[in-house]
Records
---
Amino acid sequence: MVAEPLVWAIFLLPLLSFLLISLVIRPLLNRFAAVSGYLLIASLAVSLLLSVIVLLRLAQGADSSYAPHTWIDLGDAAIELGILLDPVTAIMLLVVSGVSLLVQIYSLGYMRGDPSIARYFAYMSLFTASMLGLVLSANIVQLYAFWELVGLSSYLLIGFWHDRPSAAAAAKKAFIVTRIGDVGFLLAIIYLFFHAGEFAAAGLNPLHIPDIWQAAQPLASGGAVLKGTALTLVCLGIFAGAAGKSGQFPLHSWLPDAMEGPTPVSALIHAATMVAAGVFLVARFFPLFQEAREAMMVVALVGGFTAFAAATLGLVMDDIKRVMAYSTISQLGYMMAALGLGAFGPALFHLFTHAFFKALLFLGAGSVNHASGTFNMRYMGGLRTHMPWTYVLLLVGGLSLVGIAPLSGFWSKDEIITAAWLGEGPVDPWVARTALALLVGAALLTAFYTFRMVFLTFHGEFRGGGAQELADAEASGRPQPTAVSSEAHLAESPGVMVAPMLALAVGAMLAGYVANPQWVKSLLGIPAHWFSYFVESAVLYGHRETPPFNWAVAGISTAVALAGILLAYLLYARVRNAGPVPAASAEAGGEDSEASGHGHAHAPPAPQQADPLERGGVVYTLLSRKYFVDELYEGLLVKRVFYRYFAGITDWLDRSLVDGIVDFTGWTTRQFGRLAVQLQTGQVQFYGAVIVLGAVLILVGYIAFGTRLGG
Amino acid sequence: MSLESMLVVAAVLFAIGLYGALARSNVIAVLMSIEIMFNAVNLTVVAFSRYVAPLALRQEIGSVLTGQVFAIFIITVAAAEIALGLGIVFAMYRHTESVSLTEANQLRH
């Protein structure tokens, strides 16, 4: 058993780093702001070491139950601060501290010279600390507090460059949209709290997470504490919170906009912290979901639909980070679908491998931006020769994302698709079949958009980068794009940025083997399906056997992935290299050469070419406008429904009722004063007469009624 | 002389003074009316002292002068009040060239 203070230290060290940076370095020693990065890296390194120790001990079967510390006793319920350390927590600790550590090292290079670097690392410390606290929480209220802290720190980081209006708007959007989901989570907690009596009768604390699991299990005397519709609603509430954080449809719209933050932040959000929290939450309450079939079906279908729909959106994006954002949403959809299908181990396995290759892809995108000055793939191209390391590493990440055989993404995605194929979960077969179709379709699209990105970015000829984008925007009178720099220096990124990517690439290649999903009994001491067995031992009640490796499924998914890559090659790589320049582009090329005098010394950029997908007409418009979901939310829900009805009614109430009462009070006083003013004539004799009249009245009254008053 | 007759005289004096104080517009006349009211009160106080003070007390001490002492006080205060009042009247006259009370309504504002 690992000593409790050591487990707490995993979470407290980044927190301490946050306090030191924000309370000491930033206000007092801002000259030494660069130290803050090293401070955070040091604390995360220790956290990572402790996480590894915890994981190893746990894998050896060490006891891991820690008595919670009561914080607030509420009678039948108690809010505690405690550690819930099970295999899921241990894996998450490793992923969060490990990915965060690499991202921070990368940040040293990426954020070099930023004037607010201390603030950046302070937020990063808070972000990592809250996520570590979240996965350790043993109490649902404790978990909720960290949950909101994760939301807060993501808000701060997405809006890190708060002087850009688009970043401020994206931060607000992320905060508000995830908050909509959190309402569901909060309602679930409130429900549990108000039924504390029933829990207490069974000897359970309604806010202690293992007790909540227990409550959903049938008792010996028949019937569970938490069952039927109530259980389904609680599960759906929890899922609503998870959907908000994990960007599941229909709460996905914040995630692509969250690209406004610095790229390492995107990497962290997408790989380890923010979005993983949603999947983690559903995994944490999996014993509840298992007992609620309807909720599982909702999770599976929402996950499957999100996986597919987000992948279609990823096809047409021009912004390299947005492609990856939709890819993240899509991959999270895979995880959710897996959880919904009852494939607990595969879902977390995919979360684990995804953390590596998605962080790698994002850091690669940041590296590309470092060289080209833009995120717009229309202005990239041909970077392969300039930055070979980034190219190879991004290719590794991309192949892993697509799911090509020896890389980690293949193993985890394969387990999920196998689970959908077999359909042995608690859901109806039609749900499993629908999910299977959606997931296989998404695999095809994933391969296509990933390699569209690779070909557009690295192959062909260089199309001018940020300088060209700024010049084009000026020439056509469009507003200047934000986050674009004209200081492109086509070269490999510095070692401090490449090294973390290298580490992540090794993870992306090898992470799949901790599960050893093959036919070998034991690989370097790792027994077959080790990961799934290890993780599923966290699910105390009736976990399923992980299905064995299935050649048919593996064949299908590989074929689909290769088809996607081939399609992308045909559309983007081959045509672009060979095809003649179209007339329209030639005109644009003329402008380009004129504009290229605007201060970049490279060879004239290659002309723009129309995206072959633009021939899709209506479908292309639909996709590039993201199914008009933003318009639906902004234009219809917010402007029409919310502004007109909700805001209209509250506005009316405020104006007529609240203001009315205030105005009436003032009006009455005013009228009274207007009357009283008539009495003040300034005639002292009038006052005297009134006094005499009053005295006479008192006297008369006293004489008339005096005896009755006892005088 | 009975207590009643004294009180009647005092009441008549007081009424005359009150009328003057409330009805005359000349400040000097108002001050004079107020003096009349003071004197009505003095008369009442002295009369009560003479006729109503407890018999037992009078037998013990010989005579009771409480009312008379009050009257002396009131006369003193009235003198002071007149001095002050006339001062104000003079100041007012210098300022407005009028001793009419109806025109002295500046403090309303």
Note: Chain A touches chain B at residues 680-685, 688-689, 692 (CB under 8 Å).
---
Amino acid sequence: MAVNEGTGPGEGYGAVGGGDAALDRAEREPLPCGRELWSVWERHETGEPDPHSDGCPHCTEALTSLRRLEDVVSTARDAEPAEAEPDASALVGRVMDVVRLELRPGRTLPLGEDDEDAWIVEAAAARVVRAAAETLPGVRAGSCRIEGVPGQGPGAASGQAVPRGPVVIRLAVEVALTWGLQEVADRVRRRVLEAAESELGMRVVAVDVTIADIIDEREERP
Amino acid sequence: MTEQLASGELTEAVGRAVLATAGVAFLRPGLAQLVRASRTMARVRPGGAASGGPSYASGVRVTRDAGNWHAEVHVVLRRGHRAVDVTRAVRAAVTEAVRRAAGTADDPRVTVTVTGLV
């Protein structure tokens, strides 16, 4: 697992979207019973059977807190009808996304130029990347990892694992049968580069696109 | 370790400056922290905002080391604003806030971390 200790002000590092890397300290929010808060919430939301949580007072309290938060957000949404939101559940979802980002922020990545002291957590940047890819019809974004390039940027000489400087984006996508694979990879790459520049201001040296699967749009996107 | 935490007033001045910046949705809210607030995870940092008032402790940390101010800010931004531009505006606002509140002409070091987009 790549780390970038010392490169940013944040304390959270780890994989985003792939779910395949060991969790590091910052991702851990252990409850007194030893379970991770995000894990308890995730299992609850996916409906995965969780016998431990069912009988554990700490997990039960964590889930009660989650529901309370969802209620608060929903109530706030209802109390402010003037701020038009076509789908109230979308706002709830966005707020809950923020909560999840706090629990699993991933790496801290540089924003802007080398001499700036601005950063963004990987999870937030990855969401922008995935959303950019999914603006293409028949494209579904999967795991996204964003990493600095060892040996580039200031700090490289001082031994920082991932110094300030341009990043590499590795994105997996599933695409509809209608696409030519080379064409869709090129278009995804362009969309991602545009979004990284226009929405984030993150310098990107490469976008590696992996076609992870071919999907049948007739089934997946009726 | 000579690093010292700034006063609650200075921290709050920085917090207000950040929140007044276009494109900032809120300081790292500690939403997860909020739902844990009734438990032992709730922490009160010495020198932080006074109890009863708005707390910026989860999103703002201002320290002084060897006479140099350092403000660390964690923010959630609004979509539709270019993230790096907002961080630059935040830096300018925080710099001005620290100068005014601390009565110094020196530029503080300002570290801005975007922790989410809504």
Note: The longest strand of chain A covers residues 204-215.
